[in-house]
Amino acid sequence: MITETHPTLAKSGYASVNGLEMYYEIYGAGRPLVLLHGALGTIEMFGSLLPSLAQTRRVIAIEQQGHGRTADIDRPLRSEQMADDTAALLQQLKIDAADVFGISMGAGVALQLAIRHPHLVRKLVVGSGNYKNDGIYPEVLAALETTFTPEAFAGSPIEAAYIKVAPNPSGWSTLVGKVQKLTREFVDWPSESIRAIAAPTLLIVGDSDIIRPEVAVEMFRLRGGGVPGDFVGLPSSQLAVLPGTTHMTLVNCIELLLPILSAFLDAPMPEGR
Asked: What is the C-alpha separation between 266 and 5, in angstroms, rounded?
């Protein structure tokens, strides 16, 4: 049984980066671990997991453009830009390198952070991540046009969480539209860019996720996995498929998630890294 306690907030504030006033919170002490929330989310998305992580780590939770306490600006949402924003914030906080855990949209940001700013990423955890358009079930992409609307989220917990903390609560509709456009206009990332990531990588996906399991396996192979470890040794990257888990429930499955996450982050770095 994992006992949840409320972590002590060590620091919070805003950093001026790339035209944004970007919000962050820091908990605990130890090796830095950056948390990157999913689309439409806030730091509170990690509420079930953060207390345990902060017991042994310096957890840095960040809110991206237009999300949570970070006000929107006049530019589209792009994973590459959000990765650059995150890198600028970490540099302001004088973080030379950190472990990085992103979920959903945050997984895309984490991947781009490892691609564009490899010196900042020690270990990489990709939760429900994707790098290609057909990595998402086609019926999910179709639903993007009909059910992923501000009206569909009216009265939902995710809308309520936004309204509670956003500097401009009336910006909800704009945010939903930008997230919809981010997904609709996504262009596949080259396989080689995924293969070239230097950081050891843990890929986590729910067995009933919106991400097709075949694509999680493809990413695992690109990251050096899919080999007979008894003969050639274990790769530096790992794949975890959580049973009975959906895209929305993955981050709250702490009984399954926390032991896997902790074992990966606490393990020694591979030789040569």
From this structure: 21
Return d(Cα 16, Cα 267) in angstroms, integer: 34
Residue carrying structure tokens 């909800």: 172
DSSP bridge partners of 25:
12, 61
Tell me how many degrees the CA angle 44-48-54 measures, rounded to the nearest 5: 90
What is the chain's alpha carbon radius of gyration, rounded to the nearest angstrom?
Answer: 18
CA dist 233 → 32, 172, 220, 226, 227 (Å): 28, 49, 15, 11, 8
Predicted TM-score (pTM) of the model is 0.95
* The pLDDT of residue 8 is above 90: no
Spatial CB neighbours of 22, under 8 Å, sequence gap ≥ 6: 14, 15, 16, 62, 63, 64, 65, 70, 85, 89
Residue 150: is it exposed, middle or buried by C-beta count within 10 angstroms (0-12/13-18/19+)?
middle
Find the helix or strand (DSSP H, E) in which 126 lies.
strand 121-127
Q: How many whole angstroms separate alpha carbon 33 and alpha carbon 122?
A: 9
What residue type is assigned to position 137 of the chain? Answer: Y
List, as one string, the DSSP characters of 44-83.
GGGTTTHHHHTTTEEEEEE--TTSTTS---SS---HHHHH
CA distances (Å), origin 28, targets 4, 10, 196, 213, 233: 15, 7, 32, 34, 35
What is the tens place of the pLDDT at every residue in 239-258?
A: 999 999 999 999 999 999 99
